[in-house]
Amino acid sequence: MAPNFPSWVTLAFSALTSLLIYFFIKFYNHRRFHRNVPAPPHSFLWGHLKLVGDTMARFPPDTHWQIIYTAIAQKYDLPGAWYLDLWPAGPPHLIVTDPDLAHQFTVLKNLPKHPVGNLAGANGAAWKAAHNMVAPAFSTSHQRNMAGMMAEEVMVFRSTLQKKAATGEVFKIEQVLHNLVLNTIARSIFEESLDAQMKEIPMLATFYEVCDLNIILIRSFNPIAKLFARRKQNELNRKLETQLGDMIRVRFEKVQRDDIDISQKRGLCIMDLILREHLLEVQKAQRAPLDPKFMYMAATQVRTILLAGSGTTTGTLSFAYALLSLHPEVLQKLRLEHDNVFCPGTEETYALLQQDLNRLNGLEYTTNVIKEVLRLYPIGNSARGSDGAEFITYQGRQLPIKGHVVTGMQHAMHYDNKIFPHASKFDPDRFSRDEIPRNAWRPFERGPRACIGQTMAMEEMKVTLLLTVRDFDFECSGLQPTKQRVGWTDLDTVLGDRAFQRWKFEAGPRDGMPMTVKPPNRSG
Which chain regions cross the lipid bilayer (predicted)? Predict the structure, then answer.
C-alpha cells in the first residue's frame, strides 16, 4: 500500500523537483555554451570559477578584478574578445581586450551601462537629463577657470607635506590626497570650502563609512555579515542624506539671499546647475522649492560626484609619486619642464599660474607622465549590457552578447605589448611618439559615457605635480619586494604587493601607499 503523504509534502516535493530540473537545465545550457567560443580552459563542473580562484590566489587579498582578467588573458594568449563563465556566482561575461572592438560598443553602438559594478548606472532619458544638467561645470573652459582654486588647495597640501618632511614621519599619502581632492570637488559643487585638509568633516566621515561597508556587501559571501552591513549602511545613508541635505539648503539660501543669477548655465557651480533646473520646474508646477524628491535626487548626485571624482585623482597621484620615486630620470625631466614653462621656485610658479592659467597647456611632459601612470594603473573598467542586441561582430565572427556583461578591459589592453610596445616599462615619452593605436588608451573610457570629470581630474593632477615635485623627494615606506608573479609586470620585485591595485569602489593603492618625503636631492 502506497504511503499517504499530506498534500503540502507532495506540493513541496513537486516544487523542489521542478527547481532542481530548472537548475540542471540552466546549468547544462550555461556550460554547453562555452564549448565552442573563445575562452580560457573551461570546466563543465566549475565553469571558470576554479580558474579565477586559482588566479586570484597568486595575488594579494582584495586584488582588483582587472588584474585577474589581465593575468588570464596573458597566460592563455586569448584573443581580443573572450568569454568568462562565472555562473552561478555571477553573470557570464564577454571580456573585450581589443581597442577597436571596445570602440564599437562604447562609441559606435553605445551599449547601456550594466547594473553590475556601476555606480553611475543610469541609462536612457534619466542619464541624459542628469548628464546635461551638470555638464557645463565639467567643460574644458570651466575647468581651466577652476585651476586657480585647485592651486590654492594644492598649496595647502604642499604645506602638509612640508610638515611631514620636517618630522620624517611615515604617512599614508592616499589619505592626505583624498582630503585635497574631496575639498576641491566640494568647492566645485558648492563654491564653499569644507576645510577638509585641516580638520575632520562629519559628512566625509559618514561618507567613508558608507564606502567601507559597501566593500563588505560586494565581496563577502557571509549572509549574516552582509545583513548587518546592509542595515548599518542604510542607517548611514540616511545620516549622509541629512548631512548633504543641510549643505544643499545652505547653498539654496545663499543663492536666494545674495540674488545669485542662475538664469544662464555658464560659470555656475554644480549645485547651482542642479538648483537651476529644479527651480525652473518648480516655477512651472508651483511646488515647494526643496521638496523631498528633489532633495533625494540632489543628494544622490552630490554623493556620486564625490565618490566617482575622488578615486581617480587620489589613486593616480599616489601611484605617480611612487613611480617617480623609482624613476629619477623621469622626475628630473618633469622638474625641468616646470622650471621652463613656469619658473624656478614653487611660490613664484603659484603666483605666475594665478596670473596665467593657460600656461598649463605647456606642460606636455607632465601630461604624458599622468597618462603613463593611468596606463599602468587605470582605476577600473566599464560594464555594459546587451540592450536587446543578440551579437557583436569581431573579426568577422558574431559573438553572442544577450544576457552577458560586456566588459572593456582597459588594464589588459594597456599591458599588451602588441598595442603598447614594451608595455611593462614606465615610459611617458611613448605618448610623444606616433606608436599608440587610436582607441587604445582609455582609462576614462570613451564615447558618450566616458568619465564626465576627466578634464577636472587631469587639470588637478597637473597642478598638483607642478606645485609639489620640485620641493620633495618621495619614497615608499615599508616595501616588501616579492618574486615576479606575472610576465607582464615586474613591479612586484620592487613594490611587493603594492604593485597590484586593491579593489574598493575602484582600483586603488594598497595600504594607503605609505610614504616619507624629504627636501629634494638636487644632485640627481
Answer: 6-25, 305-324
